[in-house]
Amino acid sequence: MSTVSIKDVAARAGVSPGTVSNTLNRPERVSPETRARVERAIRELGFVRHGSASTLRAGHSRTVGLSVLDIANPFFTDVAAGVEDIAGERGYAVILANSAESRTREDRNLLVLAEHRVRGVLITPAGEDPEPLDRLRERGINVVLLDHPAQRSDQCSVAVDHVAGGRLATSHLLDGGAERLAFVTGPLSIRQCRERQEGMRRALRTHGRRGKVTEIVMPEMNARTGQQAAEKLVSNLPDAIFCANDLLALGVLRGLIQRGVRVPEDVSLIGYDDIEFAAASAVTLSSVRQPTYQLGRIATELLLDECDNPGRHAHQQIMFQPELVIRESTR
Question: Which domains does the chain possess?
Fold first, then answer.
């Protein structure tokens, strides 16, 4: 069986080979009608382009990398959906990399992405060291920070004000009458955890509360470690618990219920992220909502604009405000 070429597709669609190439590589330059005709010819002929050859000719591919902290967290699943939708509309593919909150693993993943000659990388960094991202830029790979604010003006970022989110969650618990609080978090090396902690502390100062907060730092941010945190809390039960993400909160909820603790009658509980499962748990979970899908979409738009329009691109640092969502788990 002979291989179908770009010339064959062009002949079937009644366009030039250059128009077929633009449809594959720069679809925004082709009118919708012509693009539909070319795409129909591609389907009818079963054309598959030689990705590695086109990459070698152009010096880069029509792919971008997405590096996340924990792909098991539904927060990043929702973010990835926004990334995929915009990338697909613009003719790009997405390579997903999971750092598992490890700098070593992140460095390895970024090297693989560079070897694949991605046009750009969207990343929620596992640490604060800028060197790995600087190395990408030196290779001509554009970088946009995702759920992480930029520290420099020549860097695009899309983030959420997690200090404000921590204040929202804690103020809600205090307004509900809580006197003794607990904060369950993941590693404080993660910026989002530190910022939510800072927001909690600011809310305590604003409300004139000087009492000690029980802080439990878990090595991972998932339901399993949340259950382990519940074991530590139940012997000296606080009035309210703020968890740094919903997976921790759902694990704490399960651990408390297993030990006969009533939520919210005995203790109020609030999470962070407002993942889909928060509204579907046995006791629906109050949470702080982030615009996860929008984070992915807007970050991808910024990255692809920088890739496709390097001379005209204007760097932006976008900060979203979180939203308090009150459900059954808080008084």
Answer: 6-49 (1.10.260.40), 60-160+292-321 (3.40.50.2300), 162-289 (3.40.50.2300)
